[in-house]
Design a protein that fits this description.
The protein has ten helices and twelve strands. It is an alpha+beta fold. Strand 1 and strand 2 form a beta hairpin.
């Protein structure tokens, strides 16, 4: 077992934005990759590991911290040293939690784990204060009282929109103050997406999906990504992944937070948006690429998805 003590220090002045990363090879047991970007008031981190056995890491800090944690793949858990209660996140799950201090452990429990997270400190997380949603009102009531708090009473599935924001943060090309502003805007966007989802799924508990079905559903998602411009059917996708249609429909929505064709539409709309931003293609050409014979129908679908017309994006 690795015992790695981490101390978090609150930044009160604008620090130099920096990135830290390391790879820790653990002999025959595997390796850990860790990347971290620190900006004023926040630490953004991602990691992946391949392990022969579960690894436990120690963490201690006395700084009030709001954590946005995403388990992209695998099982991760955390618990206080003086408590037996474990907080567990599985494949494609996320949570928002506040801790006035922490003295405990984190565990990576799967052969392969990929995660992403953001730790926010005062006064950064105070700027996110809002009680417009019931889940936020309950959350901030506990935070202001200095108590541990969760935005939802159970883990939530990572949606494609949330994953898209995470991808944007991984691909940041800015530097200096622009980098600070970029990360601040993306953190705020991601927090709002988590809050909206927590409110929408309040009281709706997730259904347990068996491990072998989770693996097949990840195969389904990858297959859709690779073949999104092909004529896809539920029966064809199910046959390709070796899963029945009932589990495909039920399990996909449970694990990824949307239907199979909702996810396909999300992929296509995001692809169309990138084409409009990064190429000289006309709206008609993008519509044709997306499979629309009439630009009007594409524009209508685009506005329904993003809230504005494709022509407005370039303006």
């Amino acid at each position: 077992m690795i015992d790695n003590e981490l101390n978090t220090i609150m930044c009160t002045e604008m620090p130099e934005i920096h990135k830290a990363e390391f790879t820790d090879y653990l002999g025959n047991t595997g390796y850990l990759d860790f990347n971290e970007v620190k900006i004023n008031g926040a630490a953004i981190f991602s990691g992946n590991s391949k392990l022969a056995n579960e690894i436990t890491l120690r963490e201690q800090h006395e700084t009030p911290t709001l954590n946005m944690y995403f388990s992209i793949q695998g099982i991760s858990s955390a618990w206080e040293a003086d408590s037996n209660k474990k907080y567990v996140l599985k494949d494609n799950e996320h949570t928002v939690a506040f801790a006035p201090a922490f003295d405990g452990y984190y565990a990576l429990s799967s052969p392969e784990v990929r995660n992403f997270g953001i730790s926010l400190y005062e006064p950064f997380f105070n700027r996110l204060y809002s009680t417009d949603l019931e889940c936020l009102k309950r959350f901030w009531d506990k935070v202001t009282a200095g108590k541990m708090a969760d935005i939802s009473d159970h883990a939530l599935p990572i949606t494609p929109k949330q994953q898209s924001v995470i991808n944007d943060m991984h691909q940041c090309v800015y530097s200096g103050n622009m980098k600070q502003l970029f990360y601040e805007s993306k953190i705020t966007e991601l927090f709002l997406l988590q809050a909206e989802q927590a409110e929408a799924l309040n009281g709706i508990k997730s259904v347990k999906i068996e491990r072998h079905h989770i693996d097949k559903l990840h195969t389904v998602r990858h297959y859709i990504q690779q073949n999104m411009f092909d004529p896809l059917t539920l029966s064809g996708i199910a046959r390709e992944a070796g899963i029945n249609e009932f589990m495909l429909k039920k399990g996909f929505k449970e694990l990824f937070g949307m239907t199979v064709f909702g996810y396909l539409n999300e992929l296509k709309m995001n692809y169309a948006r990138q084409m409009l931003l990064e190429s000289a293609c006309t709206v008609y050409e993008v519509a044709y690429t997306m499979g629309y014979n009439e630009p009007y129908n594409f524009s209508k679908a685009f506005r329904k998805h993003f809230g504005y017309l494709p022509g407005e994006l370039r303006k």
